[in-house]
Amino acid sequence: MPDEIEVPLEQSQEHIEKAHEEHEGHHGAGEGEKGRGGWTRFIAVATAILAVVAAIGALKSGLLVNEALLAKNNALLQKSEQVKRLTEKSDSYNYYQAEGLKSLIYQTAAQSQSPGSAVAQDDLRQAGHYKDKQAEIKKQADESDAKSQDAEKEAAKDNEESAQIMEKHHMFAFSVSLCQIAIALSAIAALTRSRRVWFFGLAAGLAGIAALIGGFLGLHLPFAF
What are the respective helix, strand and coil percentages of the chain, to the nearest 5? Predict the structure, then answer.
């Protein structure tokens, strides 16, 4: 599972303070400089908003990872239960065959005795006894088999649930990544006074916000992440 996502909140605060200082430094300048100061201030505010969006995405992403791990652990427990039931089934069928062999031995012994003799009757009773035990053992084996199949279905269900949760996690993780890229580009734009770089950062930020909203709406990424 992926590690916890870190959100650059400290960097965004530095961007705000730096932009504010630059704006104050150009406070007495001409109209062009005032426009630049307002632009860098807008970058700082937008960066702070993106940091909040990234923090929300990181929190939701972490919660989904925990849910996916829980579902995966449940699947492993069900797999263990399946193995246990399969072992019980195997043991029961071995026991079933052993009791059947005993019943056959007593039936053969009864046939070698005089019909209606006490010994023959006793052998037949013993043969019937082991035959009845076979029926009980087979019932137990069938129950173990049914429980094994149920455990297998539950394990598959939990694995599917874990995969679906991870798909949701990927959406929020993608949102955080886009916001981090946007924050980095905003820092470059503020330092270089490049509007073109800022537009790229703005596009990445808007895409990150859209991915966050899409995650809450239950949408999934159309590609592997």
Answer: 85, 0, 15
